[in-house]
Amino acid sequence: MSSRDPNVASLKDYVCDQFEVCKRKVFAAETFDTSGDLAYVYRFDVYDGKQRLGSVNLETSAVIREMGTPYLLGMDKPGVHSELGLGWKTLPAYKDLKPLVVKAIGDHF
Hints:
The chain is α+β, with helices and mostly antiparallel strands. The chain has one domain (6-108). The chain is built from three helices and six strands, in the order H-E-E-E-E-H-E-E-H. Strands 1-2-3-4-5-6 form a six-stranded antiparallel β-sheet. A hairpin with a 6-residue loop joins strand 2 and strand 3. It is globular and about 35 Å long.
């Protein structure tokens, strides 16, 4: 079911969870449409209370789908994108993904 409100209908994602890691505020967003060439299925935006520091992302792309591991854990910091060395052949459950994201945020932010 889609919304009749154009502001709601145009949303690309929504915040589905929020939590803290090492005094950093984290907002987890789930993307509605991941069918494009590159998409973040989940994006975990990390804030220090004043500004956004970056994000940890469950990513999918046409290239990685062709390589046989359609989901990778990546990280964005200002001007830098990196892969964190974790990949899945099937979409991981959020409850299984979250502890890995918490560790990555603790290690990198």
